[in-house]
Amino acid sequence: MEIQTLNPTTPRQRQRIEAFLKRNGLRFDDMHYYAAITDDDGEMIAGGGLKGNVIKCVAVDDAHKGEAIANTLISHLIAHANEEGHSNVKLFTKPKNRQLFESLSFRLLAEAPEAVLMETGIGGINNTVEALKKIREESEKYKEYNKECKENNKECKENSEECKEEEKTNLNTSTPQPLTTTTPLRGVVVMNCNPFTLGHHYLIEQAAKQVERLFVMVVREDCSLFAYAERKAMVEQGVAHLENVTVIDGSEYAISQATFPTYFLKRLDDAADTQMLLDLDLFRRHIAPALGATVRFVGTEPTDRLTRRYNQLMHEALADVRETVRLEKEGNAVSASRVRKAMEQGDMSTIRQLVPPTTLPYIIAHLATQALQAELDTTPKPGLVDKDNNGAHRDMDYALMQRSIDTLHPYFVKLALLGCADTLPSHTAIRDAGIEAEKAMLAATNGVNTHKGALFSMGLAIVAAAHEERKIAANEEQILKERNGGEDVLVSLQTTIKALAASFPDTNGTHGSKAKLLSKGTTAIKGALDNAREGYEMLFAEWLPFYIERRKEHDAYTLHKTLLRIMCDLDDTNVIYRTDLATAEEVKQEARALLDSFSKAHTAEDKEKRIAAELLALKDMDQRYTARNISPGGAADMLSLTIFIGSIQT
Hints:
Elements: E1 2-6, H1 11-23, E2 33-38, E3 44-51, E4 54-60, H2 69-83, E5 88-93, H3 98-102, E6 107-112, E7 115-121, H4 125-159, H5 161-171, E8 186-191, H6 198-208, E9 213-218, H7 228-238, E10 245-248, H8 271-291, E11 295-299, H9 305-317, E12 321-324, E13 328-329, E14 332-333, H10 336-345, H11 348-354, H12 360-377, H13 398-419, H14 427-444, H15 452-474, H16 476-482, H17 485-502, H18 511-519, H19 528-533, H20 537-552, H21 558-569, H22 573-578, H23 581-603, H24 607-627, H25 633-648
Helix pairs in contact: 4-5, 4-8, 8-9, 10-11, 12-13, 12-15, 12-25, 13-14, 13-15, 14-15, 15-16, 15-17, 15-25, 20-21, 20-25, 21-23, 21-25, 23-24
């Protein structure tokens, strides 16, 4: 017998694994590595796989059970996981297999009627428990401090009437008073916060009133729109004023639909309940005791069936579960899904009603990132990188541009947080954040300048937008009363962009500055900084209204047409730098002609046929521009900026 390595991503080898598992009553599950033990004839008699540090799909043919094959196989998988950097290995299996794996050094973490979760190796749940105990100890210091303050107040009360009044004042403050029970009451809220809303804030606020110490655990798994680090930061900033609330790291042991394998369940219908029961058992056995928590708080769930079922199972599994009726706005529960929908629709007025001001910078950063993504995904585009090809760029492709966008996003968050202040951030602070972002971008792209121009224009707009939201949050009623709808919002935003750009000195060595030199003063070429100093006049006056009107009409080719509309007007220094002034003017004329034809096709009786023809013309333009090294990169940057401004205008 020997151990063979199979690649589950290779079709032929996957088929071999699937056939073996089916023979043993199991289904195939997501894995990156599979080890098979074969007999002298090359037939698979045992096998097991790995996904990260989780062992999956372990099976031994009935004829070979009891031959210590399982021991050999599991030892091999653990060793391989260790080689990949995992000192701790987990597995999900049927309850009947518990004793087998306990004999192989695995220990039980959680159990449910249809499954158990086990682990082996150093660290693991013990490390998590110790970390949580330290957090609890820190919260105890708060309790002792309160106790000392109370004793001091008592002494003051006995000595003077003035201290009586001081104590009365102290008791009326929002600082929670220590409970008189010998065992402090502690509670836990577990939430995803994608993003953090006023509904989340309301639940935490209500829960904090019922316990001496409330721990808020943010779900760690990163399968949400907002990354874990962002979600945790939003919660921390949103509840900073609640002194008896501690925001803690999410447990790596939270079990979700994404992490729970189903290959060994007889019925897939059992998967959701089994996943939830394991998650609750982990909380009951390890998380809650480590924190000294006896109460679990949740919000009522009016719409989502799975969450409602989770709440039901929580009541059955835990001793003290307290539900808070969800906060409502305009007759509907405040939810993160409502916020995400408003983000898709560019409805900032609704977003403001659903989230605390501390969440808005993160939303603004995401809208900026989504704008860059929308520009990249627009296909076809003339001479630019898109889903079909690399355009006129030999050093860029779609994957590289995607990596660049992903790299820039955390810096968009940083810029938004800079802007979210009572006064505009200094030029130095903005410049330093931009330099840091550019260095990260170049490191991620191996030195290729993918989004330098977009970083400048989008960075200014992000700071300005965040600052405008800060002003609204500080005096919302008065500001919205003074402003006449979206137009005044845009005027104020444009003014702020001008103020930020004015602090930037003239540039040297950029495509814009070099394009000006090529013009030799014969024409008034405007670079990126010039356009910013003017507050992107053409964008606000022409391109944005054009884009918004197409979007209102639900035009499927809104972004294609808006790009062409921008190309009609913009002195694209990227085109001039790559070619010459005459070619740049030719690009303007061709874009105007194609846009006019595209618009006529939209209203023609044979609309679909005409639009198909215009798309072919756009693809032809793409091929010709690629061959001639023409890339309207400046127009692409302005398309991203137009999309972003369009998403925050109301």
